[in-house]
Design brief:
Elements lengths: L6 H7 L6 E4 L3 E5 L9 E5 L11 H22 L3 E5 L15 E6 L17 H15 L6
Antiparallel strand pairs: 1-2, 2-3, 3-5, 4-5
Helix pairs in contact: 2-3
Length: about 140
């Protein structure tokens, strides 16, 4: 997939909406439109790379250097009991959007009684914006800003 047809590139360029949590010249943090749980957040490099193997090592390091601060803000904002960090590469690994992104998925003690991932569903834009603001407020207290 080219950057022209990439949904994340469209969000980065402002052509498509996205519930933005944080942005700098290298990274964008948005709410996942199809969250596993409330607060499911994506950390995305602003430069298009289809998978992690295409990224220079230094860029991968910068990407993952902001993940803990974002995760801390997410957990605090939604009062999660824990969180998962995930990053899929390729169709076989269930990468839906071929643009590198790191999932931060808040987890709750009762969200998986059968041991399976909670089901994904489309989140209303208003809900995404509300949670994004709560996370953004927590990030403002961290080293990212």
């Amino acid at each position: 997939m080219s950057a022209k047809s990439c949904i994340f590139c469209s969000i980065i360029s402002g052509q498509q909406p996205g519930a933005q949590v944080y942005r700098d010249s290298n990274f964008l943090v948005i709410m996942d439109k199809y969250p596993i749980n409330k607060g499911h957040t994506l950390v995305i490099p602003t430069k298009h790379y289809e998978n992690l193997l295409q990224m220079p090592s230094a860029e991968v390091g910068r990407l993952y250097s902001i993940v803990p601060a974002v995760a801390k803000a997410v957990v605090s904002a939604v009062k999660a009991d824990g969180f998962n960090v995930g990053q899929n590469n390729g169709v076989a690994a269930n990468q839906i959007v071929p643009h590198v992104h790191v999932h931060i998925v808040p987890r709750f003690i009762d969200d998986s009684p059968d041991g399976r991932w909670p089901a994904r569903a489309v989140a209303p834009n208003e809900d995404l914006a509300d949670v994004a603001k709560k996370i953004k407020d927590k990030i403002a207290l961290s080293h990212l800003t």
